Amino acid sequence: MKQTIVVKVTMNGDKSRSKALKIIVGLSGVESASLKGDDKSQIEVTGDGFDPVKLTSKLRKSVGHTELVSVSAVGGEKKDEKKAENKDEVKPAAYVWPYNQPLYVYQEVPPYGYAQHHDPCSIM
């Protein structure tokens, strides 16, 4: 599901801004990141399948104080409609083995101590 989050980061200069953006874009699932706000202290991150808590903890460790301002999901209504359509389908109650054969076939083993030994060579 595509999501958009806004993170407020205390950034002192251009170096810390670029460092924060590199960390954000380096996460898997992030599609875009842009600076927001009057003092450019907020970063809006858009992507699919990334963890906002993991993102904020990485920013706290490397850049400084980070605050998660908002998290919003985009396109959540479409999935709800699909779930409602799938509820009409009827599923079978139990799985029935479609063949007349049993699952396991056992082979008889000769009793202990009995072995057929045929010697193909009859020199003696």
From TrEMBL:
<dbReference type="GO" id="GO:0046872">
    <property type="term" value="F:metal ion binding"/>
</dbReference>
<dbReference type="InterPro" id="IPR044296">
    <property type="entry name" value="HIPP46"/>
</dbReference>
<protein>
    <submittedName>
        <fullName>Heavy metal-associated isoprenylated plant protein 16-like isoform X2</fullName>
    </submittedName>
</protein>
<dbReference type="InterPro" id="IPR006121">
    <property type="entry name" value="HMA_dom"/>
</dbReference>
<feature type="domain" description="HMA">
    <location>
        <begin position="2"/>
        <end position="71"/>
    </location>
</feature>
